[in-house]
Write a structure and sequence with these properties.
The chain is of the alpha+beta class. It has a domain of 147 residues. The protein contains 4 helices and 7 strands. It has a 7-stranded antiparallel beta sheet with strand order 1-2-3-7-6-5-4. A hairpin with a 6-residue loop joins strand 5 and strand 6. The longest helix has 30 residues. It is globular and about 55 Å long. The chain starts with 36 loop residues before the first helix and ends with a helix. The N terminus is likely disordered. This is DUF3558 domain-containing protein.
Length: 239
Amino acid sequence: MQPGPPYQQGPQQPYPPQGYPGYPPPGYGPPPKKSNTGLIIGIVIGAVVLLGGGGAAAFLLLSDDSGSSSSAAPTSSKKTGPPDKYTVLPTCDKIGEGVRNLPPLENPTGQRRASTSDSSVELYASDCSWREYKAPSALVTMYLAKSVEPGSGNGEGTAKAGYENAFDDGGELIPNMEKATKAAYITMSSQSQCMIRFYQGNVDGQVIVTGPDPSGVVDQKVCKENALKVAKATSRAIG
């Protein structure tokens, strides 16, 4: 007996898409959202009828407020201050040119990098010493503070702090000393010396005059007059 032809299935009809009432058939996207527009309009109309024009105006005001949002302007926490006025310290020769009858100038060190624990500035220093045996001597020390971040004001802030620390230990203000921002006579424990401390922009300056006998007693009035001459010359040399 010969086997018959293979079993052939007739064409299959696809099942109609099934779904749940209110939802589209699978693969047709999310279900439609029911609209509440009619309900909202009905409530609004009812409110207008019951409350009159005033109620409608109040509703409009409330609607406007709900759509607004307040935003505070961003504030910057970046520190700002006076820019660095100076970038280099004057030479000892330039300072000495402004004072008559100074003792001979000892070997000047020139501007050099100075150590500091303040990471916001780069600190530089320079010393000038005029000395002669049995004669009053003068010592000028200057510190230049350069702000690491331009425009931060840290340079002048450092110079100001150095002056104020010395002044707080005991000082007498010197008004209008050349170009200095502030200047003062500073009290010293030694009776043979006198000191002036000042700051000018981002430069902190110190002048110490010592009498002919370092272990003796000096006339403070004369000492301060000599110190003031040197301090004024230093201020002019700084610029």
